[in-house]
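#lab-general

N.A. 3:47 PM
ok so I finally got the sequence cleaned up, no stray characters, all 213 residues accounted for. can someone with queue access submit it? mine expired

B.Y. 3:52 PM
send it over

N.A. 3:53 PM
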Amino acid sequence: MADSWTVQRTGPGDAARTHAREQLLEAARELYGVNGYRATAEHDVCEAAGVPIEVLRQEYGSREGLLIALHNRVTTTGLRAAERALLTEGIDDCSIEERVRLLFDAYVEAVTSDPREARVTFVEVLGVSAVVDEHCKLWRALWTEFLTGEAERAVDRGEAEDRDHRVDVMVMVGTVHELMAHHARRCRRARPGEVSGELTQLALTMLGSQRSG
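B.Y. 4:20 PM
back already:
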């Protein structure tokens, strides 16, 4: 409960603050990811985290700020996983199909390993506010840059149609989010390989690249 915060504050200030932030993120993951963002009040999160509501407002501004922070953490994890996949040994010798599949395998595994995080990232952020929409828009722009680089690489290697794929990639990024939201809403949880397979096929189709079989 919130009373425990008085004990935690007796330690080093930075450590106590970091602990409080993590407790709030963990509480948000559970409550936003199970009950839903709209059904969760600030005092619900603070009670679950064991901190006063003033701490939530100091660290994240509001429950909306906490939602953005949680979304940012999960999405960053997904991006870093995709980046690591593209740095694996032998990746430069892979076909575009293999490369895209490795990218999406890593991404999907990272962002869906916890169903609560997947629901927050792809469902609970939708239609919350203009501020949250802008945050998600910035992430879509970042993914567009990242995947446009992959498309240009495929063109240089003769594995994709020789044209400007930026608009295709922008559409693909939006479609990826819709597909992920669809799977996050389903009662039967799809296996990560099923989801990444769908995303791979989508990407290859938009690039004008044929699957090898």
